[in-house]
Amino acid sequence: MKKQNTLKTLSILTMIIVGALALSACQEGDNTETAAAEAEVFEEYLPVVSATGVTVPANWATLSFPLGGVIADIHVEEGELVEEGDVLVSLKGTELARSTVDGAHLELVSAQQALNDLYEYAELASTEAQQALAIAMNALDETETRWQNQQEGYRASETTIKNARAELTLAEKAQKAAKSNYDSEPGSRSEDAGKAGAYKAYAAATQRYDAALRSYNWYTGYPDEIDQALLDSELAVSQARLVVAQSDWDRIQGGPDPKALELTEARLAVAESSLEAAEASFANLIMDAPYDGTMSDILPNSNEWIAPGQPILLIADLDNLQVETTDLSEIDASQVNVGDRAIVTFDALPEFLVDGTVVFIAPKSTEGAGVNFKVIVQLDEVPEDVRWGMTAFVDIEIEQ
Predict the structure, then answer these.
(1) I need a labelling partner for 35 at 20 to 30 A (CA). Which of 227, 267, 310, 398 fits?
(2) pLDDT tens digit sequence for 171-217
């Protein structure tokens, strides 16, 4: 039988008193006193609707694993306080899953480093290609100049030719002087030392002159067939090297090689996907606390096989209990609004009278006998001895 709430009793008594006062006033014929008495009493009367309820946490959940497996460890006990992220239960196979995650993470780091290296190498390669292009252009310019000069009878620069001509002049003068000295020495060069020395000096001067003449003639001469073939070959090689250098520069200056970049980026994408999959597999073997709360029920034991979705733990935020009505009729529910004040008492704790506020009204009736609607009352404070599942009685103040 439902407990009569204090305010509900007060309401009934008020109505009785009002009726008694009205009857007394009529008998005495004093209408003025009757009206004043009615007004005074009704000022204290607050209309309410009453219902039975049950205390529940504002936040609670039954936890399960998405995949089946064998329970390796249960890391909590019933009634234990836990914090968000604490490991509650783990399945067997976590070591292998952890190793897979580590391997996938290592591959991701390696793939990212390969991509970074590709861009860094591209920058260095671009600088080197630009330098190689400049060298190739300079080499071709020198080769073309040398080839053109020899076609005009100049195998060397003007300065080199002038030096060769000067050397030839000096060598010729030295040869004539040595010849004159040799001719003026009496005797035989095979018998006389002075004559022999003069001849040796003359021979050396002649060799110097011949060498200077050959150099000058070569520098100022035209290439023969072999020389021309070598010149043409050297020019062709310089031109080919310039084409290669230009091609390398054109290809590299736009960034990394497109094919190498595509492969490296694909490797990185695969590494990221692999790590994500490995972490998801590992997470499926570990049950973490979704929020701060109390372990209210632990269903299986270690080494038990559990099926996907099988209830494992019950966690609840017992610091924030509220009351849900269980038999508020449709007539009474139609008079209740979110924000209405309420007074809550508990069957097991009659000494407590707790204020609260309506925070939710169900949009659909609950299943069961009769047409009833669930209403949630948030308590202003929760007495220490109130427990989840205790029977509560709710009086909700409504407008007249």
Answers:
(1) 398
(2) 999 999 999 998 888 888 777 888 888 889 999 999 999 999 888 88
Q: Is the domain of 164 the same as that of 306?
A: no
Do 314 and 287 form a contact (C-beta atoms < 8 A)? Answer: no
* 189 belongs to a structural domain: yes
- Whether residue 110 sits in one domain with residue 234: yes
DSSP string for residues in 224-285 = -HHHHHHHHHHHHHHHHHHHHHHHHHHHHTTSS-HHHHHHHHHHHHHHHHHHHHHHHHHHTT
115 and 187 co-located in one domain: yes
Residue 6 lies in a domain: yes
The pair of structure tokens assigned to 41 is 């009493």
Q: Give the predicted TM-score (pTM) of the model.
A: 0.53
- The region, left, alpha or beta by phi > 0 then psi within -120 to 50, assigned to residue 151 is alpha
Is 212 in the same domain as 82? no
Instruction: Output the CA angle 93-99-103, nearest 5 degrees.
Output: 145
Indicate the helix (H) or strand (E) that contains 294.
strand 293-298
Check whether residue 20 and residue 73 sit in a common domain: no
Separation in Å, CA 334 to CA 74, 331, 340, 372: 47, 5, 13, 11
pLDDT tens, position by position, 6-57: 444 444 334 444 444 444 444 444 444 544 444 444 445 578 999 999 999 9
Half-sphere exposure of 394 (CA within 13 A, CB side): 33
Tokens of 210: 């011949």
Enclosing domain of residue 168: 102-261
* Count of domains forming the chain: 4
